[in-house]
# Entry
Amino acid sequence: MPTITWNQLCNYCHRPIIRGKPTILFAKDKPLLLGIAHSSCAATKYNIGHHQMNPLDHLSREQVAFLIQFYPMLYSLPGGFQPNIALRQCIADLLYDYPMSMANPMKCLSAFKEQNKEKARLYQGDLEMDYFRFLAKVQKTAKDNPVDVEFDFP
# Structure
């Protein structure tokens, strides 16, 4: 199983990543891991999904498979100024503390609802049910499509 760690070459500048917060790159339109880059190199690449690692962080192959499925599904939800953006924003909040946020996704949902009462109220469905339905769908798809790569930045 390949493990991506320090000294991996950046997808953009092709120099080794030796410090900082490496950024994992994902496709937004299909479930695909694109690579890894320095956070500064990836900062202006808006056409791809970014997951910034925090050093002393590890992502198992199951967690990587989840993220690979997560990004295209996230970007398929309504965004911008469209109605029902609350679901996309709420789900995107999971990424701030991933993978720890998955230990208690209800905490993330409750915090979102508390901080965005108006958006949550205007949501044209059951935000809680759609939130957990989305996570279950991503999890099932990730289990059905495992990957053989992990990230380890000790």
